Write the structure tokens for this entry.
Amino acid sequence: MSRLVCVSNRISLPRKSAAPGGLAVGVLSALKRTGGLWFGWGGETVEGQPGDIERHIRDGVTYATMELRQRDFDLYYNGYSNQLLWPLFHYFLRGMRYNVEERDAYEAVNRQFAQKLLPLLEPSDLIWVHDYHLIPLGRHLREAGVRRPMGFFLHIPFPNIEMLRVLPSYAELLRDLTNYDVVGFQTENDLQAFYSGIQHLFGAEAIRGDGRVRVGERLIRVDVFPIGVDVATTQNEAMEAMSSDVVRRMYDSLMGRHLMMGVDRLDYSKGLVERFSAYQHFLETYPENVGRITYLQIAPLSRADVKAYVEIRQSLEQAAGRTNGRFADTDWTPIRYLNRNFPHATLMGMLRSAHVGIVTPLRDGMNLVAKEFVASQNPDDPGVLILSNLAGAARELTSAVLVNPYDSRAVGHAIQAALSMPLPERRERHAAMLQILRRNDIAAWSRRFVEALEKVDGSEPRVRAVSGGS
Ligand code: F6P
């Protein structure tokens, strides 16, 4: 029987507070189902030589963590991963910068990941690499002789070739992806964007009729695996948390007002500045809501050493201050803006209390908050989801109120439509979305990916690396 080995930049250690975002949720759900090893950076940086790998075992899952040198971390994570790949893959060229030193560090850290992982591997392992920090890892493992099936899943969007080729080393990046046996994306859009790159680099004949990609002797299965949520757990968490002290205090403090709620990492891709401006439009256009709605925005700080994140934080503080300064009353604040995190269950309880869930990223691979909002609702009296049509989740949640997040006026109208939506329509939309969430839940996501890895045909030559790095 094969063992599953998941590799990601950041890992979510038991006992520590949960790592933010969908990756941690997804990997943990896969490993809890099958057992196995989760290998990655433990969140510590050091000035000198990194120490030995640390291991913790909990509930059949082994967590193995490595340290990174502070300088490597700055160049590889803050630099290449988050000031080049992240903006580029989210179509934000303005925020992107290319720096050769950072590229070298990205390559070097991926090599370190491979070197530290190699001694931990067993002959029957299935290896599943996650996200944009570790694209070259597959090549490094192949070059070191790893023959086991290897998959890669991208949690964020993949850009079309016209965007991707802004990157000087785009060809290497594409070749690196072909070192995996299975390459997975969140949506059909991302898959088609990947094909556009493959066609550009290797010609249309590289894409076979069955969707697989042939590069030299290598045959790669490429597919869409939309990440989902654990519907039953989310529902239970939300119901139980409704009676928790934190959620009750928040709910009581509304004094019967409507609640609109957003939960996002503080990231410029989440469209928070545009959302704040849409809310202001809404209060201007529908003044009958002044004093009758509270917008709670939870935005834990993220990537705080990166300049663009410092800037977006300042812009948001100004925007919230402007709206509150203009509309607040002695007993009412229009926006409650919090830069802190809460336990997952508490967040689910708060989402269940909300009449409107607002999820309006300017671009997003999937966005699990949108799915969690739907799963957390009371089906008899559900809140309304306003969702950006530029989030991956919009491909599945077509019964949400879909908006273009840049169009502040339209988002303002959508808030009004959501608040005045009759109960039968709310129920109908919610039931349609819940059905989709159940079909594509988190267990289905990891099962389908692992099955794809298991099916990798042993007779196909997987061994020879396709050279990608410089
Ligand atoms: O959304 C992309 C992503 O990498 C998630 O997969 C992850 O959970 C989240 O960002 C957190 O990012 P970071 O590790 O940079 O805090």
About this structure: The chain is about 45% helix and 20% strand. The two ends are 37 Å apart (CA to CA). The pocket of 6-O-phosphono-beta-D-fructofuranose is lined by residues 10, 20-24, 131, 155-156, 302-303, 365 (CB under 6 Å). Confidence is low (pLDDT under 50) at residues 459-464.
